[in-house]
Amino acid sequence: MTNILLCGCCGKMGQAVTNSAETRENVKIICGVDPFGDSSRQYPVYESFADVKEKVDVVIDFSNPALFSELRDYCLANKTPVVVCTTGLSEEQRAEIDEMAKEIPVFYSGNMSLGVNLLIELSKKAAAILGDNFDIEIIEKHHNQKVDAPSGTAYMIADGISQVLDNAPEYTYDRHAYRMKRKKNEIGLHAVRGGTIVGEHEVIFAGNDEVLTITHQAQSKALFATGAISAATFLYKQKPGLYAMSDMLK
Description:
Blueprint: E1 2-7, H1 12-21, E2 27-33, E3 45-46, E4 58-61, H2 68-78, E5 82-84, H3 91-100, E6 105-108, H4 114-130, E7 135-142, H5 152-164, E8 170-172, E9 186-193, E10 199-207, E11 210-218, H6 222-235, E12 241-243, H7 245-248
Helix pairs in contact: 1-6, 2-3, 4-5
């Protein structure tokens, strides 16, 4: 049995993880941390990590970048593995994840979906074959409550593509801010926010007289919750290091 602390347990993803855990026999959420609190959970919910009393095997984090420092300190102090699913982390916070991984097991992914990670691998393959002959644009769509843009998944896609290109591309966000032709060495990232869109990501490879499009649509938050719990059971008992979906799927 893997005992989980769920950070951000009162949010929508927290509820999805709670529901998913209830269908699994090998995991149990024994407590949660959320500044907003929620007495309706079947496990104790604390406003801060300082209040946690339970012995925890692994932390799943679906919270907010503002809680990252507290999460980091708790996991390092208790040598607790952590699955970081929170998006919108700053460059400094992402660098801190690398430092954490030197002491504890850390699973970090901007998207816990198997399909999205397959999209990234297909995009990398396409970029390696098409090279500089195709312009690359990434469009992501999410619900109107999402605060960070572009999404963490959009960055994952762009970073993956960048790895296979001969020259490091420039990420371009707001084309309305300047008037000039598109440069060859860039990847455009575009965010759409509206309604209850769970998550859609589209990678466009636009060449002369042809366009290749790779698309993934998430129909429910449940798939992200399932991926996070699978990551937690994988991470428990791993050695210190930084892990991703590709490690879990080997």
